[in-house]
Specification:
By secondary structure, the protein is mainly beta. It has one domain (14-128, 145-185): q2cbj1_9rhob like domain (Jelly Rolls, Sandwich). 13% of the residues lie in helices and 35% in strands. The protein contains 2 helices and 12 strands. It has helices at residues 24-31, 56-73, and strands at residues 14-17, 35-37, 42-44, 80-93, 98-101, 108-115, 122-126, 148-152, 157-162, 167-169, 176-190, 199-201. The strands form 2 sheets. Strands 1, 2, 3, 4, 6, 9, 11 and 12 form an 8-stranded antiparallel β-sheet that branches. The protein has a 4-stranded antiparallel β-sheet with strand order 5-10-7-8, with no helix packed on it. A hairpin with an 8-residue loop joins strand 11 (176-190) and strand 12. The termini are far apart.
Length: 207
């Protein structure tokens, strides 16, 4: 039986490659961060690491990818852009993980993998669909019938996704996993002009 499947209203997770190794200066900065405990791992005390000079090139790369996502995936007009707000580092040792969470006060979030294992490290995303009317036994899982889906956490790769999409890292098998996460917020005109949804977000009012 032949048929045609239309993937209506999908949730887009985009993957971009840095295309180079991290520099000694970038890795030195990452390794020297002061840490604080998170729910299942540790994060940097500094939550604006992209504002530091050693990460200038990485911020530029992530900013370019964010704008590409905004224009090519979201299809947004040139009247609006996304500005990176907070940015921080995550440190996960063997046996640790990241709790299931999403990112409030952000539009698109990103994770850049500094150190990971292609074969073992994964990021898990949870379906935004809360429930279904009938739960069927599944013979073959795919992105349409799964409540959870994972992607490999590859060193040098950047993942961008809607900030409301819940995600987590289950207990890791590798000795060390380091990632850099960040949030974004719109700058410019949002909503529909002439309607009650119209809003102008000024760049100088955002940190």
């Amino acid at each position: 039986m032949k048929g045609e499947v239309h993937p209506l209203f999908p949730t887009a997770v985009a993957v971009y490659s840095l295309g180079r190794k991290f520099s000694k200066g970038e890795l030195s900065f990452v390794k020297k961060q002061k840490l604080r405990p998170n729910t299942l791992n540790q994060t940097s005390i500094d939550s604006y690491v992209f504002e530091k000079k050693p990460l200038t090139a990485l911020k530029a790369f992530c900013s370019d990818c964010v704008q590409h996502y905004l224009s090519h995936v979201e299809g947004a007009s040139s009247d609006v852009s996304l500005r990176i707000t907070q940015s921080w580092l995550n440190y996960t040792k063997k046996g640790e993980g990241h709790h299931l969470h999403y990112h409030p006060n952000s539009y698109i979030s990103g994770v850049l993998y500094i150190e990971g294992d292609l074969e073992k490290d994964k990021i898990f995303f949870s379906s935004p669909v809360i429930s279904v009317n009938i739960e069927l036994p599944i013979a073959h899982h795919n992105p349409f019938n799964s409540k959870e889906w994972w992607l490999p956490a590859v060193t040098g790769n950047l993942m961008l996704f809607p900030s409301m999409l819940q995600h987590c890292v289950k207990e890791t098998e590798t000795e060390s996993r380091i990632s850099l996460s960040f949030n974004t917020f719109p700058v410019g005109d949002v909503g529909r002009k002439g309607s009650l949804t119209e809003l102008v977000l000024s760049d100088n009012k955002l940190k």
